[in-house]
Amino acid sequence: MPQDILNLPPLPADYRLAYGTDPNQFADLRLPRDKKRAPVVMNIHGGYWRARYDLVHAGHFCAVLTAKGCATWNIEYRRVGNPGGGWPGTMEDVANAYRFLAQIAPRYSLDITSVVVMGHSAGAQLALCLAAHEPSVQRVMSLAGVTDLQRAFDLHLSNDAVVEFLGGKPGEVPDHYQDADPVRLHVAQARQLILHGLADDVVPLEFSRNYAAKKKKAHEKVELVEVANADHFDLIDPRSKVWPQVEEKVLNLLST
Fold first, then answer.
1. What does the alpha-carbon distance between residue 93 and residue 113 come to, in Å, rounded to a whole number?
2. CA distances from 65 to 60, 108, 251 (A)
3. Which among 50, 72, 77, 48 has a CA at the least distance from the CA of 61?
4. Class for the domain spanning 3-254
5. What is the end-to-end Cα distance of the chain in Å, rounded?
6. pTM to 2 decimals?
7. Percentage helix, strand, coil, to 5, in the chain?
8. H helices present in 70-159, as ranges
9. In angstroms, how far is CA 112 from the centroid of its own chain?
10. 233 and 200 in contact (C-beta within 8 Å)?
């Protein structure tokens, strides 16, 4: 399936809620029908942290997950090109969107003891960073994640997107790379599920393989799933042949 998912029209959400005052600090909440205390999937979309990519495409697979009984919290955040976007503002938004769930849980009957934080591509970098910095995150899922920012710089992925995001090259802003790079961070508490398509030509499979190997050596709770016949966008496209595998993994992670 090609990346035409990025061009699909928006789907309505049950609620669009602001978690901050900036126009990009909001999220779309979708609620399952007739289900009290619904588990939650918080989604962080990708797009190499750039403002020209937004949350619209992610609404399609969020709607499918909601139909399976999950509340979905599809977040927007300040990105490179927005005032305050990039590191650390983008990460601050993700953390605030996550913490906002506790505030809205009583009103919308959300079970915040059962939350999966999921991110795709650059969104997976943000999801894994959140798990490293927020002890209450118990389940995190990376889909085709940019899990090694130094390697992303070495390969000049998406025309040095990581340099734009962090505000410089590794030697110029070493503290930013240290604080933002999932492979350098320690995730003490969360179960980490790492999915990557074998046919991904956007983010190389080596990112997830190397991340999982290093985390296992550090005795973190990590599982790598390599998805056959899947490219970078198949993992987030509910029309793709591999989507049922992704859906099953999300629901299983929520239930454990």
1. 21
2. 9, 17, 8
3. 72
4. alpha beta
5. 31
6. 0.97
7. 40, 20, 40
8. 89-108, 122-133, 149-154
9. 17
10. no
Residue 179, classed as helix, strand or coil, is helix
b/e map 34-58, b = 16+ CB within 10 Å = eeeebbbbbbbbbbbbbeebbbbbb
- Tokens at 127, concatenated: 């999801």
Q: What is the pLDDT along the chain (256 residues), one digit of tens a residue?
A: 347 888 889 999 999 999 999 999 999 999 999 767 999 999 999 999 999 999 999 999 999 999 999 999 999 999 999 999 999 999 999 999 999 999 999 999 999 999 999 999 999 999 999 999 999 999 999 999 999 999 999 999 999 999 999 999 999 999 999 999 999 999 999 999 999 999 999 999 999 999 999 999 999 999 999 999 999 999 999 999 999 999 999 999 999 8
Structure tokens at 148: 């090694």
Checking DSSP bridges between strand 38-44 and strand 71-75, what pairing results, if any? parallel
Assigned token pair, 173:
């802003």
CA distance 251 to 246: 9
Any idea which residue has 């699909």 for tokens?
A: 8
Helix pair angle (122-133, 89-108), 10° resolution: 70
- Cα–Cα distance for residue pair 139/196, rounded to 1 Å: 17
| Measured distance CA(94)–CA(197) in Å, rounded | 25
Domain residues of the chain, as ranges? 3-254
Radius of gyration of the chain (CA): 17
